[in-house]
Specification:
Structural class: alpha+beta
Distance between the termini: 11 Å
Strand order of the largest sheet: 1-2-3-4-5
Radius of gyration: 15 Å
Number of helices: 4
Strand content: 25-35%
Helix content: 25-40%
Largest sheet: 5 strands, mixed
Number of domains: 1
Length: 151
Amino acid sequence: MKKCSYSARRESILAQAIGPLASELRLIDPADLISLLRLEYHGNISDLVSSAAELYFHPGTVKFGIGGDYSLDWNTYPSVTLDLEIKPRGVTIHAQLTLEAEKARIEINYITFMTPSASPDENTDFLEKSLREATFVPSSSGMSRIAATAN
């Protein structure tokens, strides 16, 4: 997504909401996630994401997207990127969640509002409210290790 003045705030809001889910997914051995991505077992990854998401979000809010990627070299820690589709009430977000050894980060690729306002700030406020309504637990837990991508 082309970055604009309100992109950073939206990614920050999403990072706050998705933090507990990212922490849960980081409990999975990265070798297992990389194997599933490499062998294109997308159904298995979808099950893992859905199982982790159901602990924190209403059903159907967070789903595995169309794929993912990984980075695995001899001299670095592994990094796994998962495409996510996040659909709180009135909003659809396509994002990439990157899981690393000590942290996670989220980047929004696409966002659409069912009934958008002419004001980007109002849309951003609606996004925050909608994500808050879609969660079971306060979103501040687990957030110390996830960040929005700043570009």
